[in-house]
Amino acid sequence: MNNNKIISAVYDFASVLLTAVMVVCIIFTLFFKISTVFGESMENTLHNGDNVLIQVINPEFKYGDVVVISQPNGYDKVLIKRVIGVGGQTVSFDEESGKVVIDGAIVDEPFIKENMEFTYSMTRTYVIPEGMLFVMGDNRNNSADSRDMYVGLIDERYVVGKVIYKVGDKELFGKNFEMPDSLK
């Protein structure tokens, strides 16, 4: 009789454990993913080797979202970048200050590592078609992003998801990076 109780307890424990593992697997397959940052293009926000939690389901993108992109590019890499412009917006650059201009307004970007330097090959104005995104790394002078002809504008269908949490942080990711009131 004692053996039956032990076997029953082990069976109950194993079934609860298996159910929990299956639920976690389903959640991390359908709703969330974990990704690792490779490279320096998102410094000082994210660093090489950081792990991030990505929200997979959320089709709306806005200024400041950090996204993981699987769109084929000239570098054959999955990219992690910040959304700067969405469909219907115009993105340009103020060459004097090295700052981003969205729909004619200079944007304050406290998250960037340094203001960007300009090259003669860089396009100065981008009109973003619907369904496309203009993305940039926070390390503006060391980032292959929408300014680069090998990356270009990003089709929203190739966005894997939004970064919502940097593993090891105490707060949800990106909560302070919102569209300035003047551009809402």
- H and E string: HEEEEEEEEEEE
Q: What percentage of residues falls in helices of 4 or more residues?
A: 10-25%
Unreliable residue runs: 175-180
Task: Look at the structure and give the mean pLDDT.
Answer: 84
- Tell me about the biggest sheet? 7 strands, antiparallel
- Number of separate strands: 11
Structural class: alpha+beta
Residues in β-strands, percent: 25-35%
Q: What is the rounded Rg?
A: 21 Å
Please give the count of helices: 1
* Shape estimate: elongated
* Distance N to C terminus: 70 Å
Q: Strand arrangement, largest sheet? A: 1-2-11-3-4-9-10
Explain what this protein looks like in three dimensions.
This protein has one helix at residues 2-30; strands spanning 32-36, 51-55, 66-69, 79-86, 90-94, 99-102, 105-106, 125-127, 132-136, 154-155, 159-166. The protein has 184 residues and is α+β, with helices and mostly antiparallel strands. The protein starts with a helix and ends in an 18-residue tail after the last strand.
What tags apply to this protein structure?
four-stranded antiparallel beta sheet, 184 residues, alpha+beta
